[in-house]
């Protein structure tokens, strides 16, 4: 009987050369750099959109608080320019305080103030029309102008105008 002798087989491994690996890594790096720019742009757009929303929401919030005070007041004192005094459950004066809108109570203590991320650049209250000669049921036009505190966002002069009715009482 003859013995079968097995010849050792040479194993051939297929692999990538160094050049092929470098080319692949370079292509992946170029794609990652391009995607990084897109991600950075999207992040900046998102931050700016959030900042714009913050300014818009704060202007709306402060306007709504003032309108609520005017509508629920027992009477209204002087409301000229950037100051308005309301009398009622929580009497106080709304005014421009540096770069914020604030409401101070009768002792001068701040009750309400706008957030520091929003700089109020304009705040006016003007008397609007009246339904009678004795100024009962008159209204006020409130204008609030604000910007974001971070100038890098370039969010300036956002405007909010609101009309507030005094309902059934007159203005002092």
Tell me the Rg in angstroms.
Answer: 33 Å
Q: Write down the overall mean pLDDT.
A: 87
- The main sheet orders its strands as 1-2-3-4-5
Order of SSEs, N→C?
A: HEEEEEEEE
Please provide the count of β strands: 8
Terminal-residue CA separation:
128 Å
The helix-and-strand class reads: alpha+beta
- The domain count comes to 1
Helical stretch count? 1
Query: What fraction strand?
Result: 25-35%
Shape: rod-shaped
Main pleated sheet: 5 strands, antiparallel
What portion of residues is helical?
25-40%
Low-confidence stretches: none
What does this entry look like structurally?
The structure is a single chain. The protein is an alpha+beta fold and 172 residues long. It has one domain (18-165). It is 32% helix and 34% strand. It contains one helix and eight strands, in the order αββββββββ. A five-stranded antiparallel β-sheet has the order 1-2-3-4-5, with helices on one face. The protein has a three-stranded antiparallel β-sheet with strand order 6-7-8, covered by helices on one side. Strand 3 (92-97) and strand 4 (100-104) form a beta hairpin. The longest helix is centred in the first third of the chain and has 55 residues, at 18-72. The radius of gyration is 33 Å and the shape is rod-shaped. The mean pLDDT is 87.
């Amino acid at each position: 009987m003859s013995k079968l002798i097995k010849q050792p087989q040479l194993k051939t491994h297929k692999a990538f050369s160094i050049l092929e690996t470098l080319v692949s890594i370079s292509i992946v790096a170029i794609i990652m750099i391009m995607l990084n720019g897109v991600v950075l742009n999207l992040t900046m757009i998102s931050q700016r959109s959030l900042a714009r929303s913050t300014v818009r929401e704060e202007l709306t919030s402060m306007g709504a608080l003032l309108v609520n005070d005017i509508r629920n007041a027992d009477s209204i004192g002087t409301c000229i320019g950037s100051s308005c005094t309301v009398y009622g459950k929580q009497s106080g004066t709304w005014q421009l305080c540096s770069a914020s809108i604030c409401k101070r109570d009768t002792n001068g203590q701040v009750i309400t103030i706008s957030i520091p991320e929003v700089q109020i650049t304009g705040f006016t209250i003007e008397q609007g029309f009246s339904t009678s000669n004795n100024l009962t049921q008159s209204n006020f036009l409130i204008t609030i102008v604000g910007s974001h505190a971070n100038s890098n966002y370039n969010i300036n002069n956002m405007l909010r105008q609101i009309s507030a009715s005094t309902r059934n009482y007159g203005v002092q």
